[in-house]
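Work Package 4 report. The design task specified in the project plan requires that, given a folded chain encoded as structure tokens, an amino acid be chosen for each position. We show below one input record used in the internal validation round.
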């Protein structure tokens, strides 16, 4: 912003805080799916603590259809509670929703860590784990919806930072798993250390959120005083548009975003007194971008991790086979996903008016048959057409980077398609459609697994 009275993000503390909050929101989900071999080991036989901590990583048995259920029961509550959050976000203060959700997630994940030391048969362990996943993701939906709503009132770069933090959560979980496998300590100690790690991450996230009210830059954008903030923003954008007309310094996406906010026919009073945002009006402006977000996550969750976690190395037993899936599935996916999310910090292409975005999104459906035809030994219908490890690694590279980039692009474009006072509603709606895509993909994963 060009106005001298607008505070600056000193030392990038607000940006760092939202980056860590993004990390904290997805730590539980990533630690659960990355630990799929651990849970499968506990479910195969009673009192077992193998899996993530053992040595057999070449083809874990998917007892109880754990891969599919952990994905579905993570995304259904996310969908339901995000929908509720979209309508009731004004009824409960942000602080209560965000801090309350973080504390409940912390307590439930501490319970998961404590179960490492508890011996029980597979059926009750499965039930308790599924219940924990349900409630953790219910509060996670409230947390993400609230944070995305706040990010809708801030510059788009902060949405990118938040999404980059979410991408880093998967990398963090994958590295923690690899360290746990290579640590050489006993199984229970290794598992306990693995599950305590996200608890520490959530504690740090809580401290970051508590620090925001003490930062002037955060107070300026999160104070919910649209008349003053939008008046300053409108004047600045008008100046930028005038400069654009003189020397063409703004590119077309920037100009389009500014034109959405500046209506020369409006009186100053209209700008300073915006009406209450309408969900229907906001949806009509962002529906295509929201649909793209749904389709991106539908493709991703339909095969990851339900199908991709079953892919094994074709090289036979050995160290590479042991570490193949943790590295080539989870770590590689999260690294490239994070890279894709981070790319939107440097450019936003295609822009909100282009029809290329839906085309790129639809092309990702090709990844479904490609992964299903990779080296998955447990199959009875489809053949293996891509047995070599190089095929799976190549598919995963393209799959992950396209997921991260298109998700981040959609989340950044949506606030640019609405008026300033509608951005918080747009952020909440996009979070709902994000959850809808995740739930559709999780549901389809049962079908695709049955087709193998």
């Amino acid at each position: 912003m060009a106005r001298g009275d607008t505070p600056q993000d000193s030392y990038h503390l607000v940006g760092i805080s939202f980056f860590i909050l993004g990390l904290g929101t997805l730590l539980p989900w990533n630690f659960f799916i990355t630990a799929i071999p651990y849970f499968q080991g506990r479910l195969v036989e009673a009192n077992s603590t193998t899996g993530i901590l053992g040595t057999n990583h070449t083809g874990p048995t998917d007892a109880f259809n754990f891969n599919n259920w952990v994905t579905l029961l993570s995304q259904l509550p996310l969908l339901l509670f995000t929908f509720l959050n979209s309508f009731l976000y004004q009824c409960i203060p942000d602080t209560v929703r965000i801090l309350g959700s973080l504390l409940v997630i912390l307590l439930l994940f501490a319970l998961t860590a404590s179960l490492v030391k508890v011996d029980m048969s597979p059926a009750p362990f499965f039930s308790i784990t599924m219940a924990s996943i349900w409630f953790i993701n219910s509060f996670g939906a409230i947390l993400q919806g609230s944070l995305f709503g706040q990010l809708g009132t801030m510059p788009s770069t902060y949405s990118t930072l938040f999404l980059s933090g979410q991408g880093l959560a998967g990398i963090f979980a994958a590295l923690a798993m690899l360290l746990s496998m290579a640590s050489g300590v006993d199984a229970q100690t290794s598992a306990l250390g693995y599950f305590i790690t996200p608890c520490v991450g959530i504690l740090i996230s809580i401290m970051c959120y508590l620090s925001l009210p003490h930062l002037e830059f955060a107070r300026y954008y999160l104070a919910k005083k649209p008349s003053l903030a939008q008046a300053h923003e409108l004047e600045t954008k008008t100046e930028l548009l005038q400069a654009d007309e003189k020397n063409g310094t703004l590119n077309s996406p920037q100009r389009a975003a500014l034109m959405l906010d500046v209506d020369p026919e409006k009186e100053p009073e209209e700008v300073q007194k915006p009406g209450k945002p309408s969900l229907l009006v906001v949806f009509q402006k962002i529906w295509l971008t929201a649909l793209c977000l749904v389709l991106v996550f539908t493709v991703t969750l339909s095969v990851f991790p339900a199908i991709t976690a079953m892919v094994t190395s074709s090289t036979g037993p050995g160290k590479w086979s042991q570490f193949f899936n943790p590295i080539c599935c989870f770590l590689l996916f999260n690294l490239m996903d994070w890279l894709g999310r981070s790319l939107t910090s440097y450019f936003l292409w295609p822009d909100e008016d282009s029809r290329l975005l839906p085309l790129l999104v639809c092309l990702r459906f090709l990844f479904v048959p490609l992964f299903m035809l990779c080296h998955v030994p447990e199959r009875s219908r489809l053949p293996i057409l891509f047995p070599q490890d190089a095929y799976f690694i190549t598919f995963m590279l393209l799959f992950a980077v396209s997921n991260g980039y298109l998700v981040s692009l959609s989340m950044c474009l949506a606030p640019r398609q609405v008026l300033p006072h509608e951005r918080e509603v747009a952020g909440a709606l996009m979070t709902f459609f994000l959850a809808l895509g995740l739930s559709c993909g999780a549901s389809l994963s049962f079908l695709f697994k049955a087709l193998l």
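The radius of gyration is 23 Å. Validation will be extended to a larger panel in the next phase.
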